[in-house]
């Protein structure tokens, strides 16, 4: 959302769909300080793991090049080949530290949000060149927080440097007399302590900044009551439309059920309130309910059964029990086998007498 939008009426917690849409646009909570911490930690790890070897390898390669400078090929082609060779040597020497830094940078992003691909952040938008929006970005709350964060970083790093280096101030003065090659080994312990202190302090700063970014991002996703209603209509549908769909579905289901009544073997009824149509054929494990209804629907089932010469048996207790115990297209429960068998046997005897 544009920063110029009045957000006083955005009081509702964002829905899961709203959060997912923000992530799809690339709008996620991210802290640059977390990335910076990972890069700093990656740099410290690269120096500890491969710093000395890379420096020695690079020094040997450069020394060999300088020692053989008189053999530099003549002509543009020779100079280009020499430059390419020099670049490959340099990359070979610093390849591992660069790989560690690259992985650290990726890790800084992955710990904050899942990988995603979107072009939304780089899509041109007129609001980004709006003077009023630019002034709010420069003088707004976020800019003030960034200013305070910069002061905090400067102050904390200064404190760490003072704590680590002040006890060594007398020895540090003598370092100006050392050879450049001996300078790094002489200061390695101080540099290690300094980097450890900076990383420890920066970890708290990065955690606090990420919590702030998460809070502000969540606040940006809040919704108005109207937006909540509109989203509900989009995802769940208008209540009137849903009611109409349910009505149509119930009507279609009722038509399918009534089409099964002529195929029933018997309809068991409580004279006016309950009707259960059962179908039974040889080979079936048990009689199956093909239709059932209450009141007006029960009377319609009875009328349709009589039109199609389906026997109707009045047995109020059994009709009520079957209506409650069995659903459409299901076999009757075991406890009703005996009572239903007596009804079906009675119907079959009547048919034999009729023939």
Question: What descriptors fit this protein?
Answer:
name from scop, 2 domains, single chain, 355 residues, elongated, mainly alpha, 12 helices
Describe this structure in words.
- With 355 residues, this protein is mainly α.
- The chain has two domains: 16-218, no CATH class; 257-354, name from scop (3-Layer(aba) Sandwich), CATH 3.40.1690.
- The chain has helices at residues 16-24, 32-67, 75-110, 131-139, 141-165, 169-173, 180-220, 225-236, 239-258, 295-307, 316-325, 337-354, and strands at 266-270, 274-279, 288-294, 312-314.
- A four-stranded mixed beta sheet has the order 3-2-1-4, with helices on both faces.
- Strand 1 and strand 2 form a beta hairpin.
- Helix 2 (32-67) runs antiparallel to helix 3.
- The longest helix has 41 residues, at 180-220.
- The protein is elongated and about 125 Å long.
- The two termini are 81 Å apart.
- The relative contact order is 0.09.
- Its main location: membrane.
- Residues 7-26 have a biased composition (Basic and acidic residues).
